Structures are given as C-alpha cells and as structure tokens.
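Re: duplicated header lines in exported structure tokens

Our pipeline writes sequence and tokens for each protein into one text file. With two proteins the header for the second block appears twice in some exports. Here is an export where it did not happen, for reference. First protein block:
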Amino acid sequence: MKVAYQTDVGSVRENNEDYVGVFHNKSGIFFVMVADGIGGHLGGDVASEMAVSHMGFRFEGANFSEPSDAIKWITKEVEMENKQIIEKSNQYEDLSGMGTTMVCAIFFEEKFIVANIGDSRGYLLRHKELYQLTEDHSVVNELIKRGELTVEDAKNYPQKNMITRSLGISSDADADIAVNDSESGDLLLLCTDGLTNMVSDDEIKAVLKNSETVEEKGAELIRLANKAGGLDNITILLVSNDRGIGK
C-alpha cells in the first residue's frame, strides 16, 4: 500500500479546520482518517484535530487484526469521541457548538473497512471506474433521496452545507460502516467537501485514472478545487495498492 495526503486552506478561508492522519497498530494494520471541523474559527479546528488524533492514538495501541473486530472498534471509538468533543465544547464558551465530520478506513490483507459521519466522502477507483463508497449525511442528500431535489439543483441549494450527522453535535453519533473486498490496483480517495463541492466526480475520476503518482494526483485535485473557487478547506488522502494504479 502507498499513502499520500494533502490539506489546503483553499482560496477564501483564513483558517484550515480540516485534519488528516495515518496510523499503524500493533498488528501492522493501518488506519487513515480525514475530518472536517464544524463550528467556525477555533471550534472546528479543535473538534477535527481531537477526532483524528484521539482515534489515531488509540488505534496505535490496539492489536486487532480481523475486520469484525475493527467494526466493533470503530463503533466504540465514535461513541467515545463524540462524548469527548461534547464535553470539551461544554467546558469552553468559545468552543460551544463545535463538531466534525469524519471518514476513515482500515486496511487488511484482503478487505478494507470504510466508515463515515457527515459529508466527507470515500471513493474507490477500480478498473478505471469510480465508485462513491459513502453516503452524505446531509439535508441535500435526504431531499435527493426523497425525490424533492435533483442532483443538478443540489449544487446551488442554499442549505447544501447543512449536515444531519456529525461528531460532537448531538448525543447520537452513528457511523455508517462497510466492509469491502480489496483488489490489486485499487485506489481509495478520502476527502472533505472542499473537494467535492468544487470538483465533479468526472473530473476526480479523470485525475485518479492518469499515470501520475499518488502525490501528483493529490496535488492536482487540490489545484482543481482552488481553480474552481476554493470556497472551503480542501483535504484529500489517497491509498493505492502497491501493484497497479497509482504505485
């Protein structure tokens, strides 16, 4: 496996509230995570960093090596981190209302797990086709699912940034968790909505399919998001198999 990640403040915002990390546990399994802070100014920064650094630290001390154990671990960790973020926001007035999205993945020899809360996404490029592995927990996505809004209209919907699930905002923080089969040549992308609100899936697919390194692909995605306006912080993390695409 090869991992590359990059985070950028974008072209408009002064602070970067995204956070990203890569970690290994005692069994040699590795864990990657991207988070997008909510709450503005200091709060979003704190919540996203808490989620990634805390979960990453506890992962490094874990010794599980089976996907079933990883699912249990993620479920427990999300509940624990949600409580910690809420407790921190209640302690300090300037952190009140902070929260964060998160998307993460854990890799095994023949399987990988992807989990998410909010609208940070996971994509898989396999055999030159792009698949969105996660579902946005957002007002816009709920309207699309009910047939009340088209995908095209959603791009300019006034409440497009409102999410329905996150870490730190309510006592309930349920992550969607899925186990996927691994194939040689897979390329996984984890990203914040600073990318997906600026760059279309077709554009993302074109970049991921090219013959550049994973570092170069990541830099190009950041460049495209900024070229389109860079209205939000942009974070991308790419994981490729060591044979095939992106090596």
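Second protein block, exported in the same file:
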Amino acid sequence: MAGLPLRDRAGNVLLAVRQVTESDLTRLATAIPVSASLVVAVHAGAVLMMFDRRRRQWELPGGMREAGESSRRAAARELAEETGIHGVELTFAVVAEFALTRPARRELLAVYRTDLPAAPWLSLSEEGLGFRWWSPGEAVGPDTSPLDAEIAARVLAAA
C-alpha cells in the first residue's frame, strides 16, 4: 500500500482512509460532505474496475449521491447502473477523505464492499468503455486511478 496523502494526475488527493461505522457518516457529514459512494466488488481476490469514458482511466464503480439518497442506496444504484450488478449484499467498509480539484473542495466518499461468489455478467453503461479484474498485487498502471487502487487495496487488506 502507498503512503498517504496520494495524488492523481488531475491533482486530486486521497488524504485518508478511515474505518468508521456506517452510522458515523451522518456525524462526519456535518464537517465535510459525504457526496458519493464507491464499491469494491471482489471476485477470486481481484477487484472489478471500469474504464471511465470521461476521465479515461480504470476506476471503481460508484458516483454521486442523488438528493435525499443514502450512501448505501447510492452505492447500490451506481453499481447497478455502471456494471449491471443488481441485488448483491453491500458491506460498509471505510470512508475516504479527498481534497478535490475542479472545483477545489473537500469530500468524503462512503466505500462499500461486495464479495461475488462467481464472476458476474457485466453490462456497459454510457459512462464506461470496459471492465477488468485488478489484483492489488499488480502494479498500478498510468491508466488506473491510483486513488481508487489504493482504496481497493486497503479495503481488501482490512478484511
């Protein structure tokens, strides 16, 4: 695992990855918004990554919460929309703190994990160009989000 803080090519910084309870998200959100959720989908020790059409990099499925939506619901919705994976059990794993650019802001992301007993049938959305299974033992290539790879590695190591 890499040391934190960790910066990506756009200047976004992963500041911390903390193990808290899911119920702590409400308290944490009073200081820094919990604006999005990510999912670490695991099969046979590898993590599902999707190639984001806009950012042109491999990253974890996930995205922004909609108005009135819980972090858990956002994680399930984004996973389904971006991969076609529905109805899986999500376990709250960690909260990740970021300093983001464009616009400059601090955000927390709720990170969930799902363990898939079999490789799922995956379907692309308009956001993605492809899927791959990445093992945390592999090097992080220049076309992979180092921030998402670090989050995935830490979630797997904590299990």
